[in-house]
Write a structure and sequence with these properties.
Blueprint lengths: L22 H17 L3 E2 L5 E3 H8 L4 H4 L4 E3 L5 E4 L4 H10 L10 E9 L11 E10 L4 H17 L6 E6 L3 H16 L7 H9 L10 H8 L10 H17 L3 E3 L11 E8 L8 E7 L3 H4 L7 E7 H10 L13 E5 L2 H16 L4 E3 L6 H10 L4 E5 L1 H6 L1 E6 L5 E5 L3 H10 L3 H5 L1
Parallel strand pairs: 1-5, 7-8, 12-13, 12-14
Antiparallel strand pairs: 2-4, 3-4, 5-6, 6-11, 7-9, 9-10, 10-11, 14-15, 15-16
Helix pairs in contact: 5-9
This protein binds histidyl-adenosine monophosphate.
């Protein structure tokens, strides 16, 4: 019987062989995301991982790869069509409508961190369960909001220390400009479509804009000479886009206008953007998003402008490693291991450890009954800073020998003066590295 993980999904372990699957790195990145969300006055929203499949079909788009090819859909025991969420935006919109979360507008700024599911061909950087830090901002039409959200994603990467990133930006205009562009694009592609990839031929009929996004080299050659969507923007959408660019320049954010950037979800309007990394190979998008005015209304909610983005945590962590930045992030250190010598000492060790934990000392008791030598080796292996042996003598005298594992130096400590001991444990903490 095969009970292994399914293809394209993975475990996150305290310290994994593939370093990117180590939980301390995830905790670090998530903490940076949460702090960023705090500073940008966003509030956390958590929605279920399962939704009615129809929700995504309607809102992400029946013709998108995400819905047509990649969605996990099943019937529950009640006969409902269920989807594992492939992305977060649509669920957030559903939640806002269902909970009537609509005032006041200026505080409708949300973030989420969690898993998304896409049945895609697994490869480096592309998983069937991936995790996103996502942001959704409701009710603001101003182009400055677009620039602020792009700046937010760039600030996330800069806080993480990721260098040399450029935002690729484009405008898809409103529905009318897109319809005009679609016509021009179809006209141009007509002469070439016979020689293009199967995917593009299928999209030609159903969703021609997505052809611009083709990864096929021959398709790309043809698409490079296609009309530009930017020439079809309405005056108003053009002015909106100009202002976004102006603001990005004013903020010193490097950007590149990429008229071929269309994104893989149908709900976008006007500004779209993506940040890619040269360190990621084929799956190079670290994050992307854009304006999606109209989505709430499409789902039966009020007509409010919307802007958001999502970033992939797997890819962020992989870039941190490739840039050599992960080495600077350490798992939380084990401050103290207490080694009791017999049953009586085990009881004392337990209560003593509880006392230390009340004072936030990260410690554990080695209950395994190992010989001291082996217990010292195990504690050193676990990366512990200090070790305290408790035996008959220590219990009788109330004095113990605290061993600093990095150099083996021992200091006598009074077990009754817990505050003094805690001070000692925490103050020499940083010296371990210096000794090594
Ligand atoms: P998305 O571009 O589909 O946008 O996904 C956002 C990010 O999630 C990508 O840039 C990538 O880093 C990561 N990602 C996506 N699929 C995978 C995968 N199979 N494996 C690993 N990482 C992946 C959205 O999902 C939109 N909801 C973003 C948004 C929010 N737009 C407006 N608001």
């Amino acid at each position: 019987m095969d009970i292994g993980t399914l293809p394209g999904v993975f475990d996150i372990l305290p310290k994994a062989k593939d370093l990117w699957r180590s939980s301390y790195l995830w905790q670090y990145v998530e903490a940076v995301c949460r702090k960023l969300a705090h500073d940008y006055a966003l509030s956390e929203i958590r929605t279920p991982l399962i939704e009615r499949a129809d929700l995504f079909c309607r809102a992400v788009g029946e013709e998108t790869d995400i819905v047509a090819k990649e969605m996990y859909v099943f019937q529950d025991r009640g006969g409902r069509e269920i989807a594992l969420r492939p992305e977060g935006t649509v669920s957030v919109m559903r939640a806002l409508i269902e909970n009537n979360e609509f005032t006041p507008i200026q505080t409708m700024r949300y973030f989420y961190i969690g898993p998304m599911f896409r049945y895609d061909r697994p490869q480096a950087g592309r998983y069937r369960q991936h995790h996103q830090f996502g942001v959704e901002i409701v009710g603001i039409e101003a182009p400055e909001q677009d620039a602020e959200a792009i700046a937010m994603m760039m600030q996330l990467f800069s806080r993480l220390g990721l260098p040399h990133l450029t935002a690729h930006i484009n405008s898809l205009g409103n529905a009318t400009s897109r319809a005009n562009f679609r016509e021009a694009l179809l006209k141009y592609l007509e002469a070439h479509i016979g020689s293009m990839s199967e995917d593009s031929q299928r999209r030609f009929v159903r969703n021609p804009l997505r052809i611009l996004d083709s990864k096929d080299p021959h398709d790309q050659e043809i698409v490079a000479k296609a009309p530009s969507i930017l020439d079809y923007l309405s005056h108003e959408d053009g002015a909106h886009f100009e202002r976004v660019k102006e603001m990005l320049s004013a903020l010193g954010i490097p950007y590149h206008v990429s008229p071929l950037l269309v994104r893989g979800l149908d709900y976008y309007q006007k500004t779209v953007f993506e940040v890619t990394s040269g360190k990621l190979g084929a799956q190079n998008s670290l994050g992307g998003g854009g304006r999606y005015d109209g989505l709430l209304q499409q789902l039966g909610g009020p007509e409010l402008p919307l802007f958001g983005f999502g970033t992939g945590l797997e890819r962020i962590i992989q870039v941190l490693i490739r840039e050599g930045l992960a080495e600077k992030i350490s798992p939380p250190e084990l401050t103290l291991v207490i080694v009791p010598m017999d049953e009586k000492a085990r009881g004392k060790a337990l209560s003593f450890a509880e006392e230390l934990r009340r004072r936030s000392v990260r410690c554990l008791v080695d209950y395994t009954g190992k010989r001291i030598k082996n217990a010292v080796a195990a504690a050193a292996d676990a990366g512990a800073c200090w070790l305290l042996v408790l035996g008959e003598r220590e219990l009788e005298t109330g004095v113990g020998a605290l061993k600093f594992l990095a150099d083996g130096a021992q200091t006598e400590v009074s077990l009754d003066q817990v505050d003094v001991l805690v001070h000692r444990l925490l103050s020499r903490h940083g010296e371990k590295e210096a000794v090594q």
